[in-house]
Amino acid sequence: MQVTETSSEGLKRKLKVVVGADELGERFTAHLDKIKDQVQLKGFRKGKVPLAHIKKVFGRSVMNDVLQETIRETSNKAIVDRKERPAMMPDIALAEGASGIDSVVDGKADLAYEMSFEVLPEVELADFKSLKLERLVVDVDDEQLDKALSELADRNQAFEAEEGRAAGDGDRVTIDFTGTVDGVAFDRGSGENLQLVIGNAGFIPGFEEGIKGAKKDESRDVKATFPAEYPVADLAGKDAVFAITVKEVEKPVKAEINDEFAKSLGTEGLDNLKSLVSAQIKRELDQASRQKIKRELLDALETAHSFELPPTLVEREFEAIWKQVTDGLQREQKSFADEGKTEEEARAEYRKIAERRVRLGLVVGEIGDKNKIEVTQDEMRRALMEHARRFPGQEKNVYEYFEKTPGALQELRAPIFEDKVIDFVLELAKPAEKKVSRQELLDSLEKVAEA
């Protein structure tokens, strides 16, 4: 095998690879010898077909297989021998010659092909200890804890009946109902003992409003209109009349935040509930703080590293982003003009985003490689289990998808790997800590999101 570099421009490489006809002949013979015991032809016992006859019948087909295998093996060897790091799979093109591919297949000419590919740039990593970062720290105070407990009590409020009460916002009513459109009952338009809390906006416009003021044992007709975008086409935009009988009207009773309330939620008592709620608030605040410092760290890494980007990687990333953006606009029936920009301006904006993602991806990958940061099987297993839990009853299908879909596991691995690299760099950077209020943290997050 002969390898010649025919072009080297920036990150682009082009190699010419020549595999001699003699080597191809040896590979061809070895392949025939490998399959001879499996060949079965009419008039011959399995494994007893003469090699010359096999060559006559299957020779051209076998040589095609040999050529594909030879190109795969020799192209990989050429890259390994040259210590190249391709950004993507090389493009392979058979070299044009006077003999033509038929002569190669017939074993009368050398195999010659060209490999075109882009290599990954050399990334000289910055001194992470020199990065200036700030970690925002928020303590859980009494005000936050009291607010969280109050919201918890609101979500777990009880209801109690009150004689003669007229239904109003926040009240829970129990009703029987039958709905009609143009005097005709429609599918799933009736029910019994339905409970609804007025003001929760869970029904079509006009329905809850029509119940307000009703008392227990009262019957009335309520007019309501199905939204134009209602998923049942026959009902979309139609006016309906619901014959309603109110069976109960209950007023909300906010739970008292005490030991009894805490135990009703499965905790040991109020102190234990406060401890659990406080810990949950702290986790959420720490997560928000990490989100902010992660963005700052990625910004710092992008600024600290400058190198040429593989054009194909950038283009592939841009196309993925652009498709997501244009698909979103199409779903919302909007245009770039609605966003206050031209398509050209949008393309330039999203290309910069693509370049940022590719640059950071290469930097993060280089940090991980040079510092032997790996994602363990246990970490992958936990991530897969957590992902499957998001689809109750479909866990088996989720596992099968990741088992059968090439590259799917990388979707789970990538964020784990990135987070481990982030933790590694933060450990070296030793960010300064700054105590702030919860609102200051949220405001800083909002600024980061807008940037």
How is the secondary structure organized here?
Blueprint: E1 2-9, E2 12-19, H1 21-35, H2 51-81, E3 91-94, H3 100-105, E4 111-118, E5 134-137, H4 142-155, E6 158-161, E7 172-181, E8 184-197, H5 207-211, E9 219-225, E10 239-253, H6 259-264, H7 270-304, H8 311-331, H9 343-370, H10 377-389, H11 395-404, H12 408-429, E11 432-435, H13 438-450
Parallel strand pairs: 5-11
Antiparallel strand pairs: 1-2, 2-4, 3-4, 6-10, 7-8, 7-10, 9-10
Helix pairs in contact: 1-2, 4-7, 7-13, 8-9, 9-12, 10-11, 10-12
Radius of gyration: 34 Å
CATH superfamily of the largest domain: Trigger factor, C-terminal domain
Structural class: alpha+beta
- Silhouette: extended
Q: Tell me the number of helical segments per DSSP (H or I, 4 or more residues long).
A: 13
CATH class of the largest domain: Mainly Alpha
Arithmetic mean of pLDDT? 89
**CATH architecture group name of the largest domain:** Orthogonal Bundle
Number of domains: 3
The proportion of residues forming helix, as a percent range, comes to 40-55%
Largest sheet: 5 strands, antiparallel
**H/E element sequence:** EEHHEHEEHEEEHEEHHHHHHHEH
Got a strand count?
11
Separation of the first and last Cα atoms: 53 Å
